[in-house]
Amino acid sequence: MDGSGTPAQDAGKGRRRGQSGNGWGMSRRRFLSSSAVLGTAVAGLSACGGTSVGAGGTTSSGAVQGPVNSKLYPLSKAEALNRSLHWPRAINEPSDKVALTVAHTWTPDFWVRQQQFDKFFMERHPNIVLNAQNTPGTDYQTKYSVQGAAGSLPDVMYAQYAFAQNFITAGKFVALDSYMAAQPNFDRSDFTGPALSFYTSGGHTYGLAYDCEPLIVVYSKDVFDKAHEPYPAADWTLDDMLAKAKRLNSGTGGNRVYGFGSFAQLNFPYAGPMYLQPFGARFLDSSQTRCVGDSAAGTTAMDWWVRDLGPYAPSLAENQAITTSGVSAFVEGKAAMDIAGTWLTAVLQAQTNIRFGYANWPSGPAAHTTAADGSCYAVTTDCKHRDAAWIYLNEYTSTAGLTFMFSTTGAGSPARASAWPAYLDQVKGVEGADLFLKALGSYATADGVSYLPQGPAISDAVTPIWQKVWQGGLSVPAGLRQAQAAVQPLAAKNA
Amino acid sequence: MAAQADAMVATRRARRAGRVTAYLLLIVGALAFVLPFLWMVSTALKGDKEVVQYPPDFLPTSFHWGNFVAAWQALPFNTFLMNSAIITVASVIGSVIFSTMSAYAFARLRARWRPAMFGLMLATMMIPGEVIVVPDFILFNKLRLVNTFWPIILPMWFGNAFFIFLLRQFISTIPPELDEAARIDGAGHLRILFRILVPQMKPAIATVTVFSFIFSWNNFLYPLIYLRDQSKYTMPLGLQLFVSSQYITKYNQMMAISLLMLLPVVILFLIAQRAFIRGVTLTGLGGR
Fold first, then answer.
1. Helix/strand/coil for A359
2. Looking at domain B66-282, does it have CATH number 1.10.760.10?
3. Which residues of A touch B249 (CB under 8 A)?
């Protein structure tokens, strides 16, 4: 206290005479200069950059939010492609301006393609203004589950096979049957085999698939050539795959190359069609309301995968070590073969030097089946402009839309067979890329894939049990028995 | 004498050995903390085909400094940065001011139900944030505040139970005689709080500032739920867009942006090191 004022006034000054700091541990001058540096850095970084190529395009109807041009997807090429495609005729075109919100989940690169689609769509439909939302894929379901609970979903939204039924059973998606019936030249049969199965309930269709892929086998030509092993034949069997896995498995420790990159996990939603149904067994019945894994055929099947093929696949600890980097043993060049979907093509081409090819999922002793999966777009019940939403949905999932978005970008397996030639043209250097389409037309199935609302809970229930089997701490029959007991009450809730 | 000299030498040797051991342990501990950061730097500088290579190489074969530029330009991160800055500054200012006022009320104002209200406030700390996400969203949706920054900022303004508790406990250590002296001089509650108590509370306020900055800067869930337009996204949300559940994840660009995101927190730590360490001591927390 300097005695110049009242004790309170002096105490309020907060510092004694001669003290250089002010109680914060730094001088006022240093605090101000540091804040100035921080603020300048923020302002400077904010002034830098922006997106790499071009601003959003403006149309007569409205403006897209993001860039419409990039090195990967040049606008000029997109415009030429857009003009060359035959877009479906719109029904009930709005006479006044309406705004539609559409929810997507794309990477930054692919967002440019989405913005291009939206730009050209708004040029074709001047009264429909699109507000596109892009959400990180891993958090998409969280965000829209919350918004769905509050009755505030976007008008049109992406939904993956694994959670589409959650929204359908909650009454959040509009049944599209009347729109499909009214749409001229709507060809439902053009969708590949299992594509629409995941979005159907009670005989009604609630989503239109934009992609659908089967799970088949990817093999490393490098590993096969090094071992002078012939590539898989088109009609190979599970025993053929086992024989190859044995011969191609090599090395130990850090030099190990696995014969097969994945251990058969019963908790996978695909386990039924891939692991059990080839042996005449099932994990869930066709209605997904009963677990029937504990059977003689089920034991035979999983014994084969665990006891016979298992030694040539990563152990649980090895798998955890490998996948901490977020990629599989095959992508790291440490497996001769693995399970694959079409999404793997882009990953292997962009991030590895592996020479690879695709082979059919092998047939089993009782049947030839594999799992399919996919994604859709749907119109939500919170949408106030359903006719406009249908126009968008129909164009997006039409042959033209799928060709524009997915075939010509090599982004994935389009849900319509008529869009496949453009996709195969993109991946023509990849051996066996056409096997995906052939599988979709023959042995790929949604039957047995766990995609109803209890799917995640079923997977969570089976995971700890099957990890014990994987580690060798539980026999296959005991594992199946425990899994069935754990899953049965959950599966019953699917009814 | 000789024995004394021997004893001194032995003591010196023991001290040296102790120091060497302590330094070795510290180096190992520091490496354990620094290695993930160094791995981030290494990954950020790698080419696309080196990122998932196995066995991994710590040093990139060539340094791709362009990853930082490419990552920054892949999305409007300049906009995301500004949005994060706006939300963080507004949240911190509001959090500090209103938590301080609430803490003063709980510490100094007499009211019949004060203990019960304080207990109720503390009890809210037991409620996980995820539990109230849906009711919060319904509330802000009805207020037509979805797709704005307000649902992210306002909860910080309405007080964080932990900060209020911390500040209230700190105020309790300040002699109430100071308040009385100020009251005799005609000061009201606000003047007592801001002129008398706040200058005494700087360590606690610095702690609240630092922790609320870190929380707001890294806040992911509320921006995810409430923000729809990409032009309003924050840095954590923008960073997460690199992670794809469907197609290629560009880990190198993701690490580059993560490093850039770390910069403000690192700069803040360097500026407010003493306050940060004092805060950890005060709260008994580390890394929260």
1. strand
2. no
3. 107, 326
